[in-house]
Structures are given as C-alpha cells and as structure tokens.
Amino acid sequence: MTNGKRIITSIPLVFLVIALIVGPATAADLVLPHDTQAHVYFSPRGGAQGAVVAEIAQAKESIFVQAYSFTSEPIVTALIQAHARGVKVEIILDKSQRTDKRSGTMAVREAGIHTVIDYRHAIAHNKIMIIDQDTVVTGSFNFTKSAEEKNAENLLIVRSPELAKLYQDNRKRHMEHSGD
Description:
alpha+beta, Endonuclease, Chain A, 5 helices, 9 strands, 28% helix
C-alpha cells in the first residue's frame, strides 16, 4: 500500500496450499487451481470495505457471514439490500454483538435476516463471507468502520468453489451450536 491508496491484485495461485481449520483438531489442505483469482486489500483506507460491499451487491443466491465485530453501516446496509432482492443471507456473530450498541445485529434481524450468536467459543473470531458458494471473503478485516478507517487489516477475496465448500462445511458446524 502506498500512502493509503487502494491495492487490488489479481493473483494466479499456482501451487498455493491453504490449510484451513475445519473443526476441533482437524485441518484440510487444498491446492487451488492455477487459474484461481484472488483480490487483496489492505487498510486503513485501502478499499476493503468497498470491496466487501461490491461482492455483496453482486451476490445472486446466497451470502453466509461469520463475524466477530459487525458495525460497518455500509456492509450492514448491503446485506439488508441483498436480502430484500431475494438473496439468502444468514449470519453468525460473536456473543459480544448481542449487546454492542454499535452492532448491526438488530438492523439485520429487523430486516428478517436469520442471525444467530455463537455462544460456544470464548471468542467467535471469524471474519468470513461465503458468496454464491464460489467466493470466499476473509482475512483480519472485521466488518467495522474502524477496520476500514483506522486499523491495519487485510482482506482476501478468493473465487474458488472448492475453498468455499470448506468454509461452508465449517460454517454449518458453527450454525449447529449457535442460537438466538
């Protein structure tokens, strides 16, 4: 990143192996095809929030979210708009979001978006979106205003149905133990 300017990089991921935690004491290794595209953003003010909003706006069928912190109004608004246009949206949040007055939890629930809290873990520290079963949005980037404007964060958007399936399987396990 140069002077806070947006960096977007399309990277062919030749022989990249990603180890993903998919459950207690288990991991999955995935070799992504050589033509897999990834877009990388860095903050502060590196365009990550705008990239997340753009991905949400392009969703056609589904958006599955796991988030530790959830205070970005543009992201909350984009999810509500996606739900309104018929995209299936489901959200799992850390228990801190249940009482955080800045959280978008109430707004998405009032919009009719199925939103649950992961109470099992000390911190549900995920920052993930799975979009249309083929795109994974992840990284250290919390879905917050501070992540875009103040924090040193990274965001990775990878178009890979294989990777999306691993994240989706993990999300389903968390959904099973989460509740209102």
